[in-house]
Design a protein that fits this description.
Blueprint: H1 6-30, H2 33-36, H3 41-46, H4 52-88, E1 91-92, E2 100-104, E3 107-114, H5 122-142, E4 147-154, E5 162-163, E6 169-172, H6 174-181, H7 186-189, H8 191-194, H9 198-224, H10 233-241
Parallel strand pairs: 3-4, 4-6
Antiparallel strand pairs: 1-2, 2-3, 5-6
Helix pairs in contact: 1-4, 1-9, 4-9
Length: about 250
């Protein structure tokens, strides 16, 4: 296994973290009021949010939290593939559901990379097993002597390494970063470069976010507030969930 120095990692992170931050801003710019209010209105009524600006902010935070997890997961996946390429000659996989492949001697490692431990529903977990099994069969059809290791690599978390009943290894947090790099301290060493120019990036993000909230609040007030300034929850829920068509079918 080859070593990778921190300067090489920092250079990669500095070049690619920019995309994460610019994508955050772009996601806001692509949003409109119709997309924003598709979030659960009942939740915000239960939380007694009666301010239009606070409601818009709540909708926006819910929207961003899910999209940012996916975007940052893509960044971490790219970082892991980059490191594995330098240390273990790994490469991005062309197989469905597989992110990284490492071939060393008679061993072929298939890795699916997730940013955190709480990912996916039952169908997605089942799909992962199917993807592992298909990729493994294809490899062994070409060479039955190859030993295939199926690995779910998760970028953060403390769960110990386990062999899942479905035949794949689950390697998490420090163990995952050590597996792809050979460096037991890598999981802490990458935290500093990931924060590269974070204050500056977040200042720009907050500026765009506040402009968006102001603009959407004005539109929301015009469309979903009564003349006395209160939120017309009935109108909002009708727009969000009104779709009655049961009179057309026989149930």
């Amino acid at each position: 296994m080859n070593k990778i120095d921190n300067e090489t990692i920092c250079e990669y992170v500095n070049n690619h973290i920019e995309s994460f931050h610019s994508n955050r801003i772009e996601r806001i710019k692509l949003l409109n009021l119709e997309k924003l209010i598709n979030k659960n209105p009942y939740l915000y009524k239960a939380k007694n949010l009666e301010s239009a600006s606070l409601l818009i902010n709540g909708f926006l935070e819910a929207f961003l939290s899910s999209s940012e997890e996916k975007m940052f997961g893509d960044f971490l996946e790219g970082l892991a593939i980059f490191i594995a390429d330098k240390t273990r000659s790994g490469h991005k996989s062309a197989s469905a559901g597989i992110d990284l492949e490492i071939v060393e001697g008679n061993s072929h490692y298939l890795l699916s990379i997730k940013s955190g431990p709480n990912w996916g529903n039952n169908a997605q977990h089942l799909k992962l097993v199917q993807d592992f099994d298909l990729a493994s069969r294809i490899i062994n059809q070409r060479n039955p002597q190859i030993k295939v290791f199926k690995i779910l690599g998760i970028c953060y978390g403390k769960t110990k390494t386990t062999l899942h009943a479905k035949g794949y290894w689950k390697i998490i947090g420090q163990n995952f970063w050590t597996f792809i790099s050979g460096n037991k301290d890598l999981y802490t060493e990458i935290i500093e470069p990931i924060g590269f120019r974070a204050k500056e990036h977040n200042f720009e993000f907050e500026k765009e976010k506040n402009k968006f909230i102001n603009k959407m609040t004005e539109k929301f007030i015009n469309s979903y507030c009564r003349s006395d300034g209160g939120i017309d929850w009935e109108k909002l829920v009708k727009h969000n969930s009104g779709n009655y068509d049961l009179d057309r079918i026989n149930l």
